[in-house]
Design a protein that fits this description.
The chain is α/β, with parallel strands linked by helices and 349 residues long. Helix content is 26%, strand content 29%. Helix 4 packs across helix 5 and helix 4 crosses helix 10. The longest helix is centred in the middle third of the chain and has 14 residues. Belongs to the zinc-containing alcohol dehydrogenase family. Pfam families: ADH_N, ADH_zinc_N. Its cofactor is Zn(2+). One of its GO terms (molecular function) is oxidoreductase activity.
């Protein structure tokens, strides 16, 4: 099998407060796709790798290319792949084994050996997309219309997370929805819920800037969760909302969802928090509330690409700033300041 060696530059995380733009060598096989990366969005995990040298239980042991939200242009592709040179693609960072029981049952996001790009879960780590070029499989490359800006399509991955959460909740047609946490994922859940038939969407966040973004992204009302007078009405009569999406991961927000949810309603936990939660288990039991988790996505990535391509969802209100790859440290520092930033993108052209 012929293998090409491609030289380029990429953003490597070496450890705590140590991210560098360095040379890397890619190996391109005859069945691989070479993608020239245009744009990448900074995720919370990228920020954690930069500030802490780890993201949850995934600890950096070797230098790793960060980034898993990105889009680019096909530079080379196998014959009969359906991909043409110059075609713009969103790249799905998921690389499931497709042979384990979870994958075979259509639950690839639960694959125990998932190689997710930009993750240090396994060693050797799986390099991400913050690189001038990346090598991907044909299945990972989802084509979209070339006239659509890569600024928009770099939101494919977080939008897929949001759509998966909405799918986990079941039909939202005519439902009253609460989203706690109005960061990028929370706001994209609002947009996806609105597009899925929700009749009312209320958002909460302690940040005024985030509440303003929530309104732009589809919420009919955005409240400060510490304003008991404003939020208290939604706890009366055993709760108001049919579905609550918890997107902050904050312990207090997680615990509050039970009071806001009406009997037999559903709470979808999307935000990942590190703090122990004093959860009102008895109240959840008495109200027969369905508490479910939502993790990453499966087929929703393709749906996200279609929704962004068609303009069904406009994510650009969430784009706070853009930096070149050479400014990756400044980009990560800015993205970590939640008083200023929602989504920050890095460009590689």
């Amino acid at each position: 099998m012929t293998v090409q060696h491609i030289q380029c530059k990429a953003c490597f995380a070496h450890g705590e407060k140590d991210v560098r733009v360095e040379d890397r060598e890619l190996q391109l096989g005859e069945h691989d796709v070479l993608v020239k990366v245009e744009r990448g969005g900074i995720c919370g995990s990228d920020i954690h790798y930069y500030f802490h040298g780890r993201a949850g239980m995934s600890i950096l042991k070797n230098p790793m290319v960060i980034g898993h939200e990105f889009a680019g242009i096909v530079e080379q592709a196998p014959k009969d792949s359906g991909l043409a040179i110059g075609q713009r693609v969103a790249v799905n960072p998921s690389q499931p084994c497709n042979c384990c029981p979870m994958c075979l049952s259509g639950k690839q996001n639960q694959c125990p050996t998932m190689k997710f790009m930009g993750s240090a879960q396994f060693n050797p780590h799986v390099n991400g997309g913050f690189s001038e070029y990346i090598v991907a499989s044909v299945a990972q490359c989802i084509p979209y219309a070339n006239h659509v800006s890569p600024k928009i399509m770099a939101f494919s991955e977080p939008l897929a997370v949001a759509i998966h959460a909405v799918n986990i909740a079941g039909s939202l047609v005519g439902k009253r929805v609460l989203v706690t946490g109005s960061g990028p994922i929370g706001c994209l859940i609002m947009a996806a819920a609105l597009n899925s038939g929700a009749s009312e969407i209320v958002a909460t966040d302690m940040s005024e800037r985030c509440r303003e973004l929530a309104i732009e992204m589809g919420a009919s009302l955005a409240l400060d969760p510490t304003d008991e007078k404003a939020v208290g009405q939604y706890k009366e009569n055993k709760g108001y909302f049919d579905v609550v999406f918890e997107a902050s991961g904050a312990a207090s927000a997680v615990a509050s969802t039970v009071e806001f949810t009406k009997p037999t309603g559903t709470v979808v936990q999307v935000g990942m928090g590190a703090s122990p939660v004093n959860y009102p288990l008895s109240l959840m039991l008495v109200k027969e509330i369905n508490f479910v988790g939502s993790f990453r996505f499966v087929h929703e990535f393709e749906t996200a690409v279609k929704w962004l391509e068609s303009g069904r969802i406009n994510p650009l209100p969430l784009l706070s700033s853009e930096f070149s790859k050479e400014e990756i440290v400044n980009a990560l520092e800015f993205a970590a300041d939640k008083n200023k930033a929602a989504k920050v993108q890095v460009y590689f052209d």
